[in-house]
Design a protein that fits this description.
disordered N terminus, Rossmann fold, 5-stranded parallel β-sheet, 4-stranded mixed β-sheet, 7 helices, 21% strand, 43% helix
Length: 196
Amino acid sequence: MTTERPGSKKGGIVIVSGPSGVGKTTVCRQVIRRLDNVCLSVSLTTRPRGPGETHGKDYWFVSKEEFQQRIEAGQMLEYAEVFGHLYGTPKDNVENALQRGQVVILEIDVQGAKQVKVVYPDATMVFILPPSARTLAQRMSRRGREDSGAAEIRLDGAGTEIAAAWQYYEHMVINEDLEQAVREVVNIIRGQQLIH
């Protein structure tokens, strides 16, 4: 659903997904720096805060109880359990940004993307691909966020996610060269005429 007010810029939803370690957060942050009136929705999660992460900037870190209360109150646009932790998008933040005529980037997984597409059928869907499975494994290992067992589970899940993405996403962007990937996503958003 695209929200437009008289005399305001057009807004809309852009969903960006991709396997863990593919660089989607970096791509999204670069896109926001280059485009006016574009914001990144900050997700809620029950996972522990990682080193260097900031509450309210990287994620809203909440307890499982608080997350469940928000689900029951209908305050989540989408949510899913991923590797034992809940992740989701607060509905009010997205609605407020759309009312201001902003383009909202949701950096979410394929499960969440399918939920959002039901609510916002006009949402633009972009999937970030690694140049190869080997490159993805190397990037995950450089991040050092998970032990080898968790990394292996994430790599196994990446294949499933990529297969699903070919069915549901209109735009596939390979993140081999960061600058090129960022330019492609910027051009996709401009091409959808979500901003002028």
